[in-house]
Amino acid sequence: MKQIGIFPNFKKVNTAKITTETIKWLKNKGINVYLPRIAVEILGFPQYQNLLERSKEILDMVIVFGGDGTLLRVARELAPKEIPILGVNFGHLGFLTELEIPELFSGLEKIIEGHYRIENRMMLKTSLPKNNLKERQFYALNDIVITKGSFARLIRLETYVGTEYIETYPADGLIISSPTGSTAYSLSAGGPIVNPNLNLLLITPICPHSLHARPLVISEHEEVKVIIRADHQDIMLTLDGQQGLKLQPNEEVIVSKADFNTKLIRLKNRSFYEILREKLAEGGHKEF
Amino acid sequence: MKQIGIFPNFKKVNTAKITTETIKWLKNKGINVYLPRIAVEILGFPQYQNLLERSKEILDMVIVFGGDGTLLRVARELAPKEIPILGVNFGHLGFLTELEIPELFSGLEKIIEGHYRIENRMMLKTSLPKNNLKERQFYALNDIVITKGSFARLIRLETYVGTEYIETYPADGLIISSPTGSTAYSLSAGGPIVNPNLNLLLITPICPHSLHARPLVISEHEEVKVIIRADHQDIMLTLDGQQGLKLQPNEEVIVSKADFNTKLIRLKNRSFYEILREKLAEGGHKEF
Amino acid sequence: MKQIGIFPNFKKVNTAKITTETIKWLKNKGINVYLPRIAVEILGFPQYQNLLERSKEILDMVIVFGGDGTLLRVARELAPKEIPILGVNFGHLGFLTELEIPELFSGLEKIIEGHYRIENRMMLKTSLPKNNLKERQFYALNDIVITKGSFARLIRLETYVGTEYIETYPADGLIISSPTGSTAYSLSAGGPIVNPNLNLLLITPICPHSLHARPLVISEHEEVKVIIRADHQDIMLTLDGQQGLKLQPNEEVIVSKADFNTKLIRLKNRSFYEILREKLAEGGHKEF
Amino acid sequence: MKQIGIFPNFKKVNTAKITTETIKWLKNKGINVYLPRIAVEILGFPQYQNLLERSKEILDMVIVFGGDGTLLRVARELAPKEIPILGVNFGHLGFLTELEIPELFSGLEKIIEGHYRIENRMMLKTSLPKNNLKERQFYALNDIVITKGSFARLIRLETYVGTEYIETYPADGLIISSPTGSTAYSLSAGGPIVNPNLNLLLITPICPHSLHARPLVISEHEEVKVIIRADHQDIMLTLDGQQGLKLQPNEEVIVSKADFNTKLIRLKNRSFYEILREKLAEGGHKEF
């Protein structure tokens, strides 16, 4: 652990202070620190040489100060590099973040000593072959979602798995989710909860206007193709609910497992099921 | 039946021809016919004196040429007048339309002879007391829907029935539906099917991000108040999925039963349950 | 309030003591008290003259010591008499019970002074016309449920509303629920929550083996007929989950609104929605 | 292909005739045929030497005459032997059966020539460690289901994945399903559809009396433990809905992936998704 990046979310209180303290702490240990340009500017540092944007190849780890949302953003940005990510949360418990602020330096100590494990999380990739986008490939850790605008008429999503026609969902949209994303948007649309260490894809229609549509679990080796059928242009593709792209009628969206994982640094023995209970279920047992 | 209006949907094939024939047929019977200004222009009629827009007070019936969507539009427009509506469908069976084109003139004959019944359908009204809209009241036959835009962060819908706090739904949106609307958007969001001759309100959250939210059926005498909690302005209210209004954070939406009904002209003995079977269920019995 | 019955559920701790104290308190006020024969025996009273079983006609009120389950039982037993029921709960909050033990005597004081209101709850009645049962009519406050045994093959429930054929549900069973019962078994099978002061029937299939089956809300004036199609005899009808009757293949079950209500004595201003929040929802707002 | 077993379901019409013809056809090819004792008796054959029950070790294939239900039964019976199974259906299309009667002999011809492929389907195993059953292990291809009797009070299912506590479901029961079983009982209880070539376990509560319970997808390497909490003894475990065992309160049920697969003989190129469309969805596109 010689080269460590830091991604601070400055919308959270105290981020600047914590980030500065962490930089100092790491430098004292003889570790080189890398920051995104925007953080350098906000923190008012002198012209920094270690810009994170230029150094992705050499980083041993990235620390994220923020919640699950910030971590999703960083995971997409670092996607093909497979740099281990440590999520440090300011607020309440997250599915992805590992430490809370009071545990920060004791946790970093352990990591530097090598006492941690890496948890691999499957990512998704998507491409829009009929679109003239500069970028050919997009990534997501949670989900790739196709939706119509709130006032637009419903769209029809002609869906294939491999070459096999599945169904044309008349719906508000369609969620293609990783196991990690099963506890995010997909869950609100009726999808199952999936152990995030599995490798599979989850297809969940949003408000389908046909009674027989159901969530579908497919193999990590299968590719999903969705052809957008609509008579209007108010259609959007979103990555992890954070990054959006406009889609056109008759456009094709291809989604499959990415060729690399998000690597989460884990120090604790909290299992997914434990986090799930805390996040979703009630403290006591409310029965009816 | 001396004063009859006609609302043609010109997006459907043959509308102009059928409308012209119907006008001729009605005039032969000594009936005065009223058309919307747009129809007069499209049909190329000479300056017509019987503009429907000026004559709502005196109409005995309005004939709608189009599907359920067109009928919803007319129902909202004629709302407080309670003019009976006859829906004539060009395509497949509807929940609201009553006749298909080949049955048109034999059906009109029966109606003129008084051989029909009126089916009352509860309507919804909504007001936005904190908004400076010119119109104070809006109406819907199917549903009043609050939704966020497709790329916006989720909204929180602080919901009251009367003065009673129900829940703050973190969700994509909320549907307040009449019984008639229970087979429309509400059904796709998990709501129950309701006999459309009942008088009640149905509250259905859209993709709620809390596991315990469920559709709620309340009395026709209860008023729903929803306060929009959001940190963005991409929020919309839609009437029957057709007419849209922008909403602001912290705005209040009040929904209750309207003071009048949509009056559908019925000639046949098809019950709601029969239409339901034809529209929703499979011809045969597909079991798994 | 001169004639008051008491129904104690002796499975609850302290029931005997509380019942004896209540009898003494009521007698001091000059009120005649009536007990079921079983209670007389358990309490070891001398041969009592005021047996509740013989005195239903003259009772002004019945006090139930127990939870919602005990109250359901009493409601069915007293069904056609419309005697007001006061539910006194030993444990946690109920949908139907009104007082907790510490509030008992102050509550009774208010009731005797006439400071209470009556809440009417719609009941269901059912008959099995093809069965040679001595009793011709059965009642339920929550629900009338048809189910197959746990090891039996699925049954088909040919369902009519009035004379109108609805569907033949291939399923584990079917719930016909009152608004009061909407927060009981029906909710676990995917039914909506209904304001219990409404008058309507709710039909909810249990684990239907066809994808298009949905809960159905019908009018209080409509009658449901279910014909049991099965090739085995492991089929049961249950009233409020408490009283069971064996059904035969091809047997008909008729369900409709009963001709009388359960009358609940209410002293507090707690609304249904308030109880709902406490019973079903989480204390805080757990979102995902 | 020298040793072939036949399992006929004699409840289907024509089974005896088809079975006899198939035996003759196979013998003509010099193949030894093995039948279950019951089939030998029904067909009135002379004392047969090739009893299937004694010969499981040497069979190259088993032909099943019947539907998916019959095939499930055979799959459990042959479980640890991994003998390839060919399902021949008398009626409509199945998820598991491969041929219809008219295709029987042309299909067998291809198989004998080696023109077929084997599709592996994950099986489940279960044990009841606290029970004194002679058999220590039971198998299922679709699902292992714990349910209460139809008139019994609800049970609480204290559920663990590995050593991790998940939840105590207050429910009618719990389904632990293989991917193959995802289109059976689990689907009727709200579970997702799973590509049957995946290896994973699906946990679906039946009519849970808590609002936050959701279907859960876990790894093929994880073991499920369910401790039955109930105050009555009307509790049952069923294998594929066909074989039942009584359970006691506080009994433990352990379920995991079996150490072997069901091997289905496939001749056609029908994919799972194609069968799914035919079995579950409507021919046309019924939208609402």
Automatic annotation (TrEMBL), chains A, B, C, D:
GO molecular function: ATP binding; metal ion binding; NAD binding; NAD+ kinase activity
Main location class: cytoplasm
One GO CC term on file: cytoplasm
EC number: 2.7.1.23
Cofactor(s) required, per the database record: a divalent metal cation
Intracellular or extracellular location(s): Cytoplasm
Catalyses which reaction(s): NAD(+) + ATP = ADP + NADP(+) + H(+)
UniProt keyword Plastid, yes or no: no
Function: Involved in the regulation of the intracellular balance of NAD and NADP, and is a key enzyme in the biosynthesis of NADP. Catalyzes specifically the phosphorylation on 2'-hydroxyl of the adenosine moiety of NAD to yield NADP.
Name of the protein in question: NAD kinase
